[in-house]
Specification:
Shape of chain B: globular
Number of helices of chain B: 0
Radius of gyration of chain A: 14 Å
Distance between the termini of chain B: 37 Å
Order of helices and strands of chain B: EEEEEEEEEEE
Helix content of chain A: under 10%
Largest interface: A-B, 28 and 35 residues
Number of strands of chain B: 11
Strand content of chain B: over 45%
Oligomer: heterodimer
Low-confidence stretches of chain A: none
Structural class of chain A: mainly beta
Order of helices and strands of chain A: EEEEEEEEE
Strand content of chain A: over 45%
Chain lengths: ~110, ~110
């Protein structure tokens, strides 16, 4: 799976949009971009994933650049409860072999300020 | 919606003892993953099972073993516990073995080895 690079920390004001960048310049065509977050000591929480197109769900939006070398997770109206470590993970589409575990990098510690 | 259930939530053991952690996946999920998260560390993949067979292996110590039962629940057995085994242990479940699947995590078991 391609490696990802994220800023170690970011601040965002409550009520504003939080934009979390992720660089995955070595991503290949069959690799998905997944985002998870972990609120202190809780189980990681799935947020969203995408392959090529931008995606939106009730939690967030995922914007993937046309060359797929980077992406941005957008939390549209951040609240204090969004303070967490956010992980961007690249995973190859399943094509046989085993059920690969997620490879967590260092992630971005997002702090929502009141 | 039903979530992944892990038991016990907290466990205290002495060095050289044995511990068993249990994981009950989301109904109809056929794949289970185990992760270990040491203090101040990111989660690390240990092992996965698909349809009751070991599917992939990560950095699981030889002292640890796991299995998935006919009802799809899984157990992680840890023997000869060491102080360094103190960690959060997460279980995740999914349908199928890889992307575009989504792994959903349980709340974790906090193991303390004294």
């Amino acid at each position: 799976d391609a490696k990802t690079t994220q800023p170690p920390s970011m601040d965002c004001a409550e009520g504003r949009a939080a934009n979390l960048p992720c660089n995955h310049s070595t991503i290949s065509g069959n690799e998905y971009v997944y985002w998870y977050r972990q609120i202190h000591s809780q189980g990681p929480q799935y947020i969203i994933h995408g392959l090529k197109n931008n995606e939106t769900n009730e939690m967030a939006s995922l914007i993937i650049t046309e060359d797929r070398k980077s992406s941005t997770l957008i939390l549209p109206h951040a609240t204090l409860r969004d303070t967490a470590v956010y992980y961007c993970i690249v995973r190859a589409k399943y094509s046989g072999g085993g059920a690969d575990g997620l490879t967590f990098g260092k992630g971005t510690h997002l702090i929502i300020q009141p | 919606a039903a979530g992944v259930i892990q038991s016990p939530r907290h466990l205290i053991k002495e060095k050289r003892e044995t511990a068993t952690l249990k994981c009950y996946p989301i109904p109809r999920h056929d794949t289970v993953y185990w992760y270990q998260q040491g203090p101040g560390q990111d989660p690390q993949f240990l092992i996965s099972f698909y349809e009751k067979m070991q599917s992939d292996k990560g950095s699981i110590p030889d002292r640890f073993s796991a299995q998935q039962f006919s009802d799809y629940h899984s157990e992680l057995n840890m023997s000869s516990l060491e102080l360094g085994d103190s960690a959060l242990y997460f279980c995740a479940s999914s349908i199928g073995q890889g992307p575009p699947d989504t792994q959903y995590f349980g709340p974790g078991t906090r193991l303390t080895v004294l």
